[in-house]
Protein: Regulatory protein, luxR family
Organism: Streptomyces misionensis
Amino acid sequence: MTVRRDFQEPARCRSDLVIGREERCAAARAQLASGGSVLLHGSAGIGKSTILRALAEEYASPAHTVLRCSATESESHLPFLALADLLGLVLDDVSPRLPAAQRTALESALTGRGESSLQRDGLALRLAVLSALRALAARGPVLIVADDLQWLDPASAELLGFAARRLGGTPVQLLCAARTEGQESQEYDRHLRSCPPDTLAVRLGPLSHPQVAELLGHRGHGGLPRSTVRDIHRTSDGNPLFALELGRALTESPTPPRPGEPLPVPTSLRALVLSRLDMLSVEARRTLLVASAGARPTLALLHAAGRENAEAECAQAAELGLLATESDTPAVRFAHPLISAALYAEAPAQERRAAHAALSTAASDPIERARHLALATTGADPEVAARLAEAAALARDRGAPSVAAQLGLLAARHTPADGSPSPQERRLTAAEDAITAGEVDLARDIAREVLTRASVPAERVRAWIIVIDTAGHTMAEVDAFFPQALADAGDDPRLLALVHYQLGWRALIVEGDFTAARDAAAHAAELAARGKDRRTELLALAFQAQTETLMGHPEAPRTIKRALREPQDPRVAWHHNGAGSARFRWLVMGDQLAEARATVTGLLREVRRRGSVESEVHFLRGLAETELRAGHCGRALDLARESLRLARDSGIGETASAMLTSLAEASGGDVDRALTLAREAVEHAEGDGDQMYLSRALGALGYAQLVAGDPAGTVRSLRRVRTLELGLGITDPARGRWQGDLAEALVRTGEPAEAQDVIDTAREHALRLGRESVLAVLDRSEALVRAAQGATEAALAQLRSAQDRLGKLGYGLEEARAAFALARLRGRRPGAAAYDEATRLFRRCRALPWLRQVEAALATLDAEPARAVRGTLDALDVLAAMERQVAALVMEGATNREIAARLFISVKTVEATLTRVYRKLGIRSRVDIVRLAAGRRAH
């Protein structure tokens, strides 16, 4: 089909059509923009046609003529059908310009009499297609859009390939798509032969979990729980078509899938992936059903489940492409996860239960046996429920809380209404396992269901706590639940302790009141001790210790010791809100970096063993922060990025991880990304009403702005931090360590008096708390204030001292920053050699953004120092110290921006200083300063 340029509507490649394909689309666009051709290929449903249409719309506008064809499997036997699609509507236009033999051959092929044409007049027909394309190209660029090349009839494919290989230098481009299963396959080579020799082949692979989640959100399925989205990604294997169909089916389904069962597969996908199922024997189909019901099917498992001819039946399925053939492994693996899910969904319920019953005795793992027993059983059965609860406990101990949650829900379903534990208790345990696994949506849904059923106060309070806990840093949204939880708790100290512990977090996150948070935590600890609930007591003490640490409260060390006393609860010891975490925070703030690293590494190892996603995100951040303090910027960046990926995947701790990753990016990665992440963290914290993390996010933004060369932006951000922390009651400067950055930025913007005030206030608290690294950083910043005031020698001495102390304390990056400030303050006297130490230290830290700053500073150095100019300045005693420094640099030929960078001040401050210099010296411009200096030298 031909579409003239006049009838084309301008269109752009919409972002929702290329989710996860940005890099691939960019490569295809670059190829098309340069006049080249593109072949998109990949498996069925992977998005080839979607991207083909989007690119075709985008690049149809520059073309004079667009020729289109889209073949189908049912029509692939019809000769020259694709050729008719491409050239049928332009035949009358190009025929007069073809030689008679070529015109006859082409018309014969396109009018249905062409089967013999390629045999009888093969050369004429080939040349006719080539001549027709050249004739169209003579009037303007031609774009050929061909979808589903694999179904092109052989005659059309041969003619298109013949022409494509001979169109060099002609403005004819091909944009094609073909289904392939592997880049090295023969079919891939065959499709390339239908394209020009320089065609760019772009293979489209599966989408990642976050990309599938984004795609589902774009298509109106964003309300699905994260655990369900994860199941969709696993079942679809990242195939966008399959994922969207599964998402649509789940959105439209009135009931979610039962625990432990595969996702429901819509009829449209069943027909697609099970088209060859009817070719199997009945027994082979039953064998595959047993395999689809098993978690990790093997031939041995199938034999144990009563499938005596499993080898032959699996071989038959492999020949049909239903199973993957892997001779080096005993596993029975489906060619695509969706085949397994569709096969299971297609089977009648009775056959499914029979498959599970067989596997309940065949499986060697007790967890698998219990799961299959549950899925083979209908109705309440206390024995089955007990076995499932035991299996859930085993999964929990193995570090598989997600599996434990599924088994717990199955146990609840098979527990009689009057059973002990009750069905609601087992549901709540499953919800707590889901929280540990990072499946907060599932946990919240379970707790809300319990609240509609439960009348026992302990069960209701426990459910309220789960709903509140899953709100995370959006606790303002669950404010209305606290009075109801308190009412259900009555006067039971154990239940009241749970509620008051959460009220402490509410005071901190929603109100930003550290004092109220500390008091609520202390009260919760007292109530828990009275009710003999050691777990809640330890959590409350740890929370109290953390608030006291951040406040700079003198009781913090004593509270930490109380939280670490025996007996301990192992569930609290490794928890991110437990005593171990509080101790880690104390160590980091107290400059004990080696011990802090060992502590958080041990905690991270334990939570990974237990499968606690939220705690893993938290401790990854903690380890990244420790490495950053130590100046291991590359290692810190890797850890921070890992934390952010996990946070976004689970929806837990995204704001905190974005903030920490911003700090790591600004220190050792990409400054632009650091700014983006910091702004994202600020936006999220403001949206959540989270005052605590808002101050941290603004601190990260201020640091990124400083590294990016925006001291005015740093001042704006960190002034907000100063105001926020004053209101929060945070006095320990080691909490955010932003004071030195604010002071440095204030010096650069020409406000040394305010910088000194920031330093003096922070120093008072740092001296009280013994924060040695903070004191050294404050000295580094104060040296810049002194330099701005003209006390250069004192500033140099203070910087040397700060650098030495930071190095001994193990703060590699701060040590390097002191060396850099020292080099810049020394100016031109030692020349480029002054920067050698800073360069060495930044390289050791892998602090790439800071190394770029050193390179920029070196670029401003002149070949030789202007000693004569300094002599001239001695005579200009009418100028103040700052004015003399600025004038000296003008005489050396430095620009205003270079002067600002050298003296740690803003360009605006340089301009204002020069205005005063002009007035005092009775001159009008920079040129007059240079002339004045030359005149002094002449005398």
About this structure: The two ends are 87 Å apart (CA to CA). The first helix runs from residue 22 to 33.
